[in-house]
Amino acid sequence: MTTKKRRASELYEDYWALTVGHTDYFSKGTVSYQILEHLVSFVENNNNILIKGDPRYEILQNEILELSPKKAELLKNKLPSIRKEINQFVKIGFIEPGLKNQHHLTKEFLTAQTQLRKQRIFSEILVDNAKFKCSVTNSDDQTNHMKFFLRTLEEVLKINLREDIQGLMMCNTNKIEKGYLDKDELKYYVNLANDIKFEDRKYNQTAYFKNFLKKMIDLRVVDDDVYFKTDADDIFGKLDPEREKRDNYKQRLWRDDLREEAGNKCMVDRVTTRGIGSHIKSWRDCRDDGNINEAWNQNNGLYLNKILDDLFDNGIISFDSSGKILINKNTDKISLDQINEISDFKISDEFLNSERKKYLEHHRNKWNLSF
Hints:
Shape: globular
Helix content: 40-55%
Order of helices and strands: HHHHHHHEHHHHEEHHHEHEHEEHH
Largest sheet: 3 strands, antiparallel
Strand content: 5-15%
Strand order of the largest sheet: 1-3-2
Number of domains: 3
Number of helices: 18
């Protein structure tokens, strides 16, 4: 028992330290998209590698802070979040440690015109260049954890998002020379992770990794199990594109992305943790307009508490371009007490990017709440 505890502790220190900021860089104009654009510009205008203490890094952090303002009062309390938002693009491979170089597909990702093309490029960059333990000033361990995951998936055929992922993230890949885990080894690490409650301790890290896996174009998730898409198609049959957009699984992924963006709190009251993914432009409207992909655009959604979701879905409330709530008072579907309770509500500024504002404009026009 003593040996097992000591080993678990050692493995825990070597976990896949995947910490990221916002993950909304698939849509032009979002905060993370702008940060990546800024980093590309920095790389193209700086020839020397950044090292710890480099004054250019301090300047860069302040520039990124203007793109992604933080609520903390002191600058020293804002900078850790800013460094996380910069480092994420090193960890997932868009930018090299030291910010001297970038992946050859990074600029193409930024200019890609379709979500499908972005997804393909994102997947290729991750497989080529992901280095979860690296950062701007640390390039000591350049292990590609995504390749390790994919090789393990080739061996075990499916990986469970709830159990197996935490086991994988527990193992020190540098000590596994063959570059993957077999089924027995994966089970061993899952047991270690359960012993120390890894999922509870490192919920954010596992959530980020799951989020990336769901964006990989050649993977498919069925009932919380990840497969290579070709394997899943053979086992479960190919999904009809139209049906895939409407099924509960796709809805669940979209909702989970919204919940992650919202920090698991209603985007309006910023208190309620049991929220609902609420479409701004409905699935049916997206389909009827001939652009079903809009239905699963993260910016075409709000993470709302149950009461606000019901009101919003039925056009009783909407939000103006600054996020302030608009209430249709000419209806018996909302009481005076409810009106008084929510009249000062607004969407938190951090969620009001340009694309989401366009969807909100559609919602106001649809329900004639543009006053």
